[in-house]
Design a protein that fits this description.
Length: about 425
């Protein structure tokens, strides 16, 4: 018999909010956290807008040694992990450490620190042969993505399976799906899982500038990200982390844990088509959605809310809209769809987990987050995108999706559990 998966802990570090409570307050109010980049001088770049976290690692309880050792994306992940573990109500004596695992998603890992250190080693790019004597002692940690999972594991004392999932912008969903799979098959009883990225650095901004994926809109940064709007012209880069505690359902129930939701279905597909392009028909994402709903044991008509990838690029929003119509049929026109990227930006490998957290909180509070900055309808995007204001709704089952470079398409179904 396949084991069920419960979500019992949430920790979020996102733009505009220092913890899960503030994150949900931001989404509920429809407030945007996008602004001009302040982390470095971005005046030379085409896109100069981002969603930055007001994050103080020392205030989060990280020691000076930890701060020096960890890249910012690791710091965000560890802070979110500590919150999620505390929120789960578990004590260390409540679990066998060898039965607790870690699965963390990240698109670019410690790229920000590598960018900074290369600048030092190469003397601002002037030296082709770098001088290793100027390297920080923890440079190896920045080079190896597994350091992210190791730090999260150390933060909670997990000694079971460990993995880093790096599938670009879908990593935050797929890391959680991997964790759920380990619980379902019996390889773990508890998983600490989620995603983290801190990509607001010159090299990353330059890369997205080169392919014109990010918005060049600079006059009103707070309104720069406009998913599904007729005037949208690219996404807003962001940073952040969200971590979840997953448990085998009966185990969580027996210890009296607060179960936020059940993770009942998930699927991943690739399109074998193009590195950055998407077919307008939406068939690849539709395939992932159909498989995830099937695993969940629910019908398309059971979906009460869809958390869209909603990046704010023209092709992505069309692709998703068609995918929702393909999978939900006429029910798609009755189902609220929204993109929280309009408020917290696109944090690459972290955003999928941040969106899962948003879906779980939407189930918890019976409130659909809005799509901010949606004022001009696009005839090609003709569903109910919950413009600008959150909407109360009796939610039982929600769908969240992700789309990433390389043709990755991911979908996950979450549902409330009867008290």
């Amino acid at each position: 018999m396949t084991r069920r998966v419960a979500i019992t802990g949430i920790g979020v570090r996102a733009p505009g909010g220092g913890n899960t409570k503030k994150f949900w307050e931001l989404l509920s109010s429809g407030t945007t956290a996008t602004r001009r980049i302040s982390m470095f001088d971005a005046s030379a770049f085409r896109s100069q807008v981002a969603a930055e976290c007001d994050f103080d690692p020392a205030a989060e309880g990280l020691t000076a040694r930890e701060i020096r050792r960890m890249d910012r994306c690791v710091q965000l992940a560890v802070a979110a992990t500590r919150e999620a573990f505390a929120d789960s109500g578990m004590e260390h004596e409540d679990f066998d450490p060898t039965r607790m695992g870690v699965s963390v998603g990240s698109a670019i890992g410690s790229t920000a620190s590598l960018d900074r250190e290369y600048n030092v080693l190469s003397d601002g790019g002037r030296k082709w042969l770098v001088d290793h004597e100027y390297a920080v002692p923890h440079l190896f940690n920045y080079m190896v993505p597994t350091s992210l999972a190791a730090e999260v594991g150390w933060a909670v004392g997990a000694e079971g399976p460990a993995a880093v999932v790096s599938t670009g912008c879908t990593a935050g969903i797929e890391s959680v799906a991997h964790a759920a799979r380990l619980i379902r098959e019996g390889s773990a009883d508890v998983m600490v899982t989620g995603g983290s990225d801190a990509p607001i650095s010159p090299i990353v901004v330059a890369c997205f500038d080169a392919i014109k994926a990010t918005t060049p809109r600079l006059d009103s940064p707070e309104r720069a990200c406009r998913p599904f709007d007729g005037t949208r012209n690219g996404f807003v880069l962001a940073e952040g982390a969200a971590m979840l505690v997953l448990e085998e359902y009966e185990r969580a129930k027996s210890r009296g844990a607060h179960i936020y939701a059940e993770l009942s279905g998930f699927a991943v597909r690739t399109n074998a088509y193009h590195m950055t392009g998407l077919r307008s028909t939406g068939e690849e994402m539709a395939a992932a959605i159909t498989a995830a709903i099937s695993m969940s044991g629910r019908a398309p008509s059971d979906i009460d809310y869809v958390n869209a990838h909603g990046s704010g690029t023209r092709q992505n929003d069309r692709h998703e809209t068609e995918a929702f119509k393909r999978t939900l049929g006429k029910h798609a026109y009755r189902t609220p769809v929204s993109s929280i990227k309009s408020m917290v930006g696109h944090s690459l490998g972290a955003i999928g987990s941040i969106e899962i957290a948003a879906c779980v909180l939407a189930l918890e509070y019976g409130l659909v987050p809005p799509t901010a900055n949606l004022h001009e309808a696009d005839p090609e995007c003709d569903l109910d995108y919950v413009p600008n204001e959150a909407r109360p709704a009796p939610l039982e089952t929600v769908l969240t999706v992700g789309s990433g470079f390389g043709g990755f398409q991911s979908a996950m179904v979450l549902n409330k559990v009867a008290a």
